[in-house]
Amino acid sequence: QVQLVESGGGLVQPGGSLRLSCAASGSIFSMGWYRQAPGKQRELVAGITSGGTTNYADSVKGRFTISRDNAKNTVFLQMNSLKPEDTAVYYCYGRFRYASSPAYWGQGTQVTVSS
């Protein structure tokens, strides 16, 4: 069982930046972030494999950057040029190789973009 512990959420003004971190208790192939806004389905934001392959939702391309420290089993999400529509609970996930869906989830961290 791998545990995921997130940090870094908060309140920021439009155009601002936040950095999320997620530390895993063990090694896992793919890590990243989903988010869920009130009344909406959970959606994939960004993911990164242990080899460094990344993928992003179209809505965050060019604004968000995902990175990973394999030695520390930690993934980071640098979020720039934040918009009110980025407001959501962000969930870190861990997925096994060849699996179609995450096996592990973090507890979630709130990101609120508001003036």
Tell me the layout of helices and strands.
Elements: E1 4-7, E2 10-12, E3 18-24, E4 30-36, E5 43-49, E6 54-56, E7 64-69, E8 74-79, E9 88-95, E10 104-105, E11 109-113
Parallel strand pairs: 2-11
Antiparallel strand pairs: 1-3, 3-8, 4-5, 4-9, 5-6, 7-8, 9-10, 9-11
Task: Describe what is shown at a glance.
The protein has 115 residues and is mainly beta. The chain contains no helices and 11 strands. The chain is 0% helix and 50% strand.
- Low-confidence segments, given as residue ranges, are none
Order of helices and strands: EEEEEEEEEEE
Shape: globular
Write down the overall mean pLDDT: 96
Strand content is: over 45%
What is the tally of beta strands?
11
The profile of the biggest β sheet is: 7 strands, mixed
Radius of gyration: 13 Å
Count of helical regions: 0
Structural class: mainly beta
Tell me what you see in this structure.
- 0% of the residues lie in helices and 50% in strands.
- By secondary structure, it is mainly β.
List keywords for this structure.
seven-stranded mixed β-sheet, globular, mainly beta, 115 residues, 11 strands, 50% strand
